[in-house]
Design goal:
4 strands; 154 residues
């Protein structure tokens, strides 16, 4: 079963809501809150994970890891497939998001750096080594208005 074939029932949705608040909640606590057995909770979680309909992950705050500078960068590609360039960009440690897009650019990335002194090396050394990068349109995130990792609200 794949995520596209999976259908959430009310119990699944309740389990997901509890785990969204605290991904470390035990199956026993979830079972107590929902009035079911721990076996049922475990089975439902395993079924959702196997279908790739849900996974429990840890998300760290950028600032807590000393990444104080975020740079959204639009990238135009020439001479290579955009997906190949995107794969190379994804290998860079500083790049935390890579998206193939339709619009002004071919690819958009989000770069996290610990200090401004790292920016010239990243732009002029690391990005310049990636074949197919024709041009960059870099910005600087001055404030994060919304950071909601709940990318699939259900």
């Amino acid at each position: 079963m794949s995520a596209t074939d999976f259908e959430f029932n009310d119990l699944d949705l309740s389990i997901v809501e509890i785990l969204k608040k605290d991904g470390r909640t035990s199956n026993q606590k979830i079972a107590d809150a929902l009035g079911v057995t721990t076996s049922v909770v475990g089975t439902r979680i395993k079924r959702m994970e196997e279908a790739k309909a849900m996974k429990v992950v840890a998300v760290a705050d950028f600032a807590a890891l000393n990444y104080n500078y975020l740079f959204p960068i639009g990238i135009d590609v020439k001479g290579r497939m955009a997906k190949d360039v995107a794969s190379d960009l994804a290998e860079l440690d500083e790049v935390i998001i890579v998206q193939l897009v339709v619009g002004k650019h071919d690819i958009e990335i989000l770069v996290a750096l610990k200090d401004m002194q790292s920016l010239p090396e990243f732009l002029m050394v690391k990005l310049s080594k990636i074949k197919g990068v024709r041009s960059l349109d870099a910005g600087y995130a001055v404030d994060i208005v919304k950071y909601d990792f709940d990318v699939a609200p259900i």
